[in-house]
Amino acid sequence: MQRITKRDKNEYKPFIYQTRTGQSAWAPAMKEAGKRILSFNRSQIMALPAIRSVFGFAVPLVLGFVTHQIPIGVAIAAGASLLGTIGMTSASRVRKRILIYACIGFSFSAFVGSFIGNSPILCVLAAGIWGIGGGLMVALGQVAQLVGLECTLSMLLFTRFATDPLHAFLQALLTLIGAFWQTLLALIPLPLPGTQTERSSMAALYRDLADYAAKPADEVLGRNVRESLLKVQNVLAESKLKSRKEKLSAALLEAGERIRLCLLQLDQIQQLYRERNETRKQADAIKQVFQASSIMLGQIAHILEPQSPWLRLVPQHYIIKQALTRLRKQLSQIETVVDVQQPLNLAESIRDQLHYARKLARAWRSGQTASIKLITPEQPYLRLRDPLSTLKANLSFRSTAFRHAIRLGVTLALATALYRLIPLPLQRGYWIPLTTLLVLKPDWSTTLSRGFARALGTILGAVITTFVIAVTDPHPILHVIFLILFAYVAYALLYANYSSFSLMVTVMTVLMLAFVTPQPLDLALFRALDTAIGGTLAMLAYFIWPTWEYRQIPDNIADRLSCLNAYLIAVLKAIENPDDYNEVNLQKARTETRLSRSNAETSVQRARNEPFPHTLNSAAIDGTLQAADNIAGSALILEGALLNKRFVQVCEELEPFRQRVDTALQEFVHAIKEQRSPAPLPSFKEELDTLERWRKVRHLTEEERAARYLLVTEIKHIIDNISIIHNLLSKRS
């Protein structure tokens, strides 16, 4: 591949295209925010799980009403209400552990809020601390973010019910009882397969991959694949990968990631062929490969669907076989100087991964055994998505998650001070920090859309609660019935539409408070005013300390590759000479690579919704980050083997490969920062042949043979992903 010339060097940007004028950039962003407010995803309605959650909420409420102990019933129901949302999101096998953590955090937060409620200074300080802690949870995924949000919500809300330490403890104990009651219900299996969450999310991933393979140029379909991958990764991040089904899940995820990487690269080649008159027939042949892949991916998704009928689907392997035959024929007719082997290798890799994924899916559904090609570190903290390691790595101002946490903490402290320290004519001023907490998010688009959704929900909620309180005032039983109905709708629409969820939560909160304290009709106006103030504070906080990310994407991805290179080279050096193994240095390098990964992924996610004149090259970005994750996974596996003393002898044969890898990854970093195409990638054949001969030496023990096989296998994996990154960063001509 030719090196890029000096004349067009400044024109080449592998990750960002400038396509819109600055003045018109805000319009699409505002339009996108409006779509988020009005969008309603029917597939995300959780009607059945909502029944279980609302039952846990309703029982203590009804018992409190029947026994004339309404305050006690409301306190227990409050503990059950927030835990109900978490019980619907976690995988079944890890739900207990997450819910127990949430129970403790929620109840402790309630105790602190009640205990310090009479001290404005302590309330402001606690709001800042809880805001930082809750904001930092965004680095750990959706479930952790929800736990952090609800613990902070609990602390802020219970400052309204300030009391002495003993009664604060009793209030927290009541909420703990409600939380544990909801936890017990969440552990009861629904009348669905035990792996409903895992299989449903995996089926959705393969269904989205099938749609993307049918139309690879559709950016919406590409975004759907990214979101499905993130959901599956979050589910598996909670797994210890011990059981057979957990290993099947991880293997299917790995196969899906590899298929996606190959599709991304093959689509780039198809676009290149389509631009040339002499290679359009070859582009049509590649399109057939995509269509065949889409059919097979759809079949895999059908097999994985928990509730789909068990049909004897006609195997479609002949379709991909025919597509490959045509592609070989068309590529053999190319007379121009282009790389004809690369698209063929990618298509064959897709075929192999499709067959493998189909076997895994059938084994999962039927309960049969399957050969799982999955190697993971034995030490949980060495896994790529280990939560505790990720959290530690983000405790730095270099972390975008940490900066968001600081911004949220400061804004919550300011919002609390506004009604606790300043003598403003505000009633129920705690709605100000509550709104700020619910609106202020890490990215601009979500903050904007949730701000409008929250305002809309509060205004409509004020109207609805005014009507409900007026109607049910003479009939308390109607008050309970309405509250339970609104709770069910809120749970069911948790992920379907945030505006509707916000509306229901507003009504729920006010109706629950009406049991404990009077709610005059004129308070609706004050709630609307407090909501407007809290939403405005959240918007101002983002604009005062923004985290616009699109300019940082190249640097963040380059930093990701640089830190990954440092960690990988440190591991390879330790394998070369095990006596030089330095656990402290390796831990530092591992922490840096986790932080760089978190920053790069967060930067890309936020940049996609920013109101600036840019369009992201999703194929290059997603493919590069995924390949980097694959290399990091191999490095973690090798470090795990080091810790288990599997490499005890000096391996001088590894040095040439290490040097070649170091050169290649450093070249990628320089190419990204200098906005140019990377230099041609040297062949690793000689180094790989040397390592293969080293692996096949006779008179080895079984342990030595297994260790050498592991090393060579992961080295091949590293080489494949280095080649992927080079192809994605290279300017095609």
TrEMBL record:
The keyword Transmembrane helix applies. Its main location: membrane. Keywords: Membrane, Transmembrane, Transmembrane helix. GO terms for cellular component: membrane. Residues 415-540 form the Integral membrane bound transporter domain. The chain crosses the membrane at residues 45-66, 72-91, 98-116, 122-140, 169-192, 405-422, 451-471, 477-494, 501-518, 524-545. It is found in: Membrane. InterPro entries: IVT-Associated, Memb_transporter_dom, YccS_N. Residues 99-217 form the Integral membrane protein YccS N-terminal domain. It comes from the Bacteria. It is a multi-pass membrane protein. PANTHER family: 60S RIBOSOMAL PROTEIN L19, PROTEIN BRE4. This is Putative membrane protein YccC. It comes from Thermosporothrix hazakensis.
